[in-house]
Amino acid sequence: MLEPRPQIYLASNSPRRAELLTQIGVRFARLSLDTDERRFPDESPENYVLRIAVEKGRAGCDRASRGDRLPVLAADTAVVLGERVLGKPRDSTDALAMLAALSGRTHRVLTAVALMTPDQERTALSESRVRFREIDEEEARRYWETGEPADKAGGYGIQGYGALFVANLEGSYSGVMGLPLFETGRLLLEAGVASMAR
């Protein structure tokens, strides 16, 4: 039996984004991309995540087979403390410094979503506020040793062990994971893509 045709391309290697799309019943095919995610000088965190999501979406459109009119979905997430954008940690020292900075404080998580069709580019931005409890250095070190923080913006994953640090969340849990489902569902609906598909 033939598998159902994908409804969209997902321009992301993130297993979290794939899991979230599967959760809402959207059929997708992945496009593997290598995008320059450096932030421009004086670029606001909001503009930064929106720009990167759009660039990923455009790169995904370029990678998609010629003549294929499937929409391309892309996203980018940033953990923001003040105006400082915390990306993925370079190493254990960087991760421990991030967790120390986030300890006992509230930070923002911005996730931009871009949906590209041949005729239109649609974008949405989700902002959530996350407050961490105090984290001591030994606990942060043990967390690093789980392997979970290595590929996560801000050096933590809310869907894993990192949830132990979250004292309060205002906003979108799925947005903190990397794909805000409310905003994503709305963009897909506007483009004529049904979630909860069979």
Write the layout of secondary structure elements.
Blueprint: E1 8-10, H1 15-23, E2 28-30, H2 45-63, E3 72-81, E4 84-86, H3 92-102, E5 106-116, E6 121-132, H4 137-145, E7 166-170, H5 173-177, H6 181-190
Parallel strand pairs: 1-2, 1-3
Antiparallel strand pairs: 3-4, 3-5, 5-6, 6-7
Helix pairs in contact: 3-4
Task: Give descriptors for this structure.
single chain; 198 residues; alpha/beta; seven-stranded mixed β-sheet; 6 helices; 32% helix; 24% strand; elongated
Give structural notes:
Keywords: Cytoplasm, Hydrolase, Nucleotide metabolism. The chain has 198 residues and is an alpha/beta fold. The protein is built from six helices and seven strands. Strands 1, 2, 3, 4, 5, 6 and 7 form a seven-stranded mixed sheet that branches. A hairpin with a 2-residue loop joins β3 and β4 (84-86). α3 (92-102) crosses α4 (137-145). The model has no long low-confidence stretch (mean pLDDT 93).
Short characterization:
This protein is 32% helix and 24% strand.
